[in-house]
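User: Is it possible to get a 3D structure for a protein together with its bound compound? The compound here is zinc ion. I've pasted both below.
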Amino acid sequence: MVETENINTQAIWKILEDVYDPEVPVLSVIDLGIIRDVAVVNDELDVTITPTYTGCPAMDVISMNIRFALIQNGYKKVNINTILSPAWTTEWMTETGKAKLKAYGIAPPKTMHAVCTPETFQQEEAIQCPLCNSYHTKLISRFGSTACKALYQCEDCKEPFDYFKCH
Amino acid sequence: METNSKSPVSNSQFLIPNSLITYTLHLADNALILGHRDSEWCGHGPVLEQDIAITNISLDLIGQARNFYQYAAQLTGENATEDTLAYLRDAREFKNCLLAELPNGDWAVTVLRQFFFSAYQYLLYQQLQHSSDTQLAAIAEKALKEVTYHLRWSSEWVIRLGDGTSQSHQRILNAIEDLWMFTGELFKPADYEMEATSKGFGVNVETLKKDWLQNVKTVFEEATLPVPDENAWMQTGGKTGRHTEHLGFILADMQFLQRTYPGCEW
Ligand SMILES: [Zn+2]
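Assistant: Yes, that's possible. Here is the predicted structure of the complex:
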C-alpha cells in the first residue's frame, strides 16, 4: 500500500490516463476533461469528477473504474466526489482526445465552440467527415447513440458518422 | 437506480414541513414523471432517429430527477435515498404538475407536451442557476444546457407538424385542445414555491409566464397555429398532490418491483 503522506498527485493523474470512457473507449477520463481535482485530504485521496451529461449512464462505471485503477496501484483510501458546477463543457476535452476521436471515426467537437441555443432550424455548422475529411455533410439527428453525440451523414462518401457535439 | 434501502421507509418522514425538501421534491417529481412518460416511447418512436431523440430526452430528465432526489434524500436524512423517494411515496405525495403525467397520446401530443414543458423548464432553470441554494443552482446550471436541446428539438417538431400536411396540422390542433388547460398550473405557485421564492432559493414562476407565452406565440406563428386564450380556465392540483388518475397507473408500473420485493437490487 502506498503511504498517503508520500502521494504525489502527478502520479495519480498519470494513472488516470489509463481509465477509459466505456462508451467512447478511445478517450481517457483525462482526455474527456471530467477530472476536476486530485488532492490528498486527511490521509485520503480525493478525486473530484464532473458528469458530461446529467443522465449519462456511464458515470457510475467511470467512477468505479477510477477506484479500481487506484486500488490496483496501491491507493486504498479513495474518495470520489461528484460536482456539477461549473458544468462540464467540451472545451475541457484535450487536443489529444480530439485527435483520438477523429482516428476512431467520431468527428470531434469543433474548435470554434458553438453551443446550442433554442433558436429553431438554425444553419448547421459544417462538420468535417472523420472518414474522408469532406465538409459536405448533413445533420441527421441532434440526438445520437449516446447523450454526447449527434448523428451526421457525409454527402461525399455517403457514410453516416457520429459527431461529438459541442456542449 | 441503485437501491440501498434494506427496509421500506415509513412515509411519515417525507411529510417534514421543510419547504426546501418539498420544493426539491417538486422539481424531482416533474423530471421523473415526464422522463418516465418519454421513456414509454422507447422502441415505439415513429422513426429510429426520433425514437433515439425522445429516449435521450427521457434520460436527461431522469438524470435531473436523480440529482434532485439525491439532494432531497440528503436533506431528509434518516434512511431516505433517491430510490425510497422515487419508489416508496404514494400518488398524493408526488408534487409534479399535471402536464407531466398526461398520457403520451400520439406523436403530436408528446412533442407539444415536451415543448410546453421544456419552454417552461428553460426559463425556470435560467433563474434557478442563481438560487441561493448552491446545490439547486448547480443542478440547474448543469441541466440547462440539455434543456436547451429539448426546447429546440420540440419547437422544431411543433413547427414541422403545424406547418406540415393537413393531417399533421389537425393532429397538433387536437393536441393543443387537449393540453392547453394544463399549462396554467406551471405558473401558479404552490405554497412551497412561494416560500421558496421568499427565502431566495426558489423561482417565482409567475414571472416566467410572459416570456413563456412569447415563446409559444413565436413558435405557433411559424407553425401556422392559433395561440389559445391565455385566460382560459386552467386545470390545477398536481403540485399539491391532487392528481389525475393517470399518475396512479404510472406509479403502479414504476413502483411495482420495489413495493413487491422491498429493497430488491439488480
Ligand atoms: Zn465522408
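Chain A touches chain B at residues 51, 53-57, 60, 83-88, 115-122, 140-145, 147, 151, 167 (CB under 8 Å). The first strand of chain A starts at residue 35 and ends at 41.
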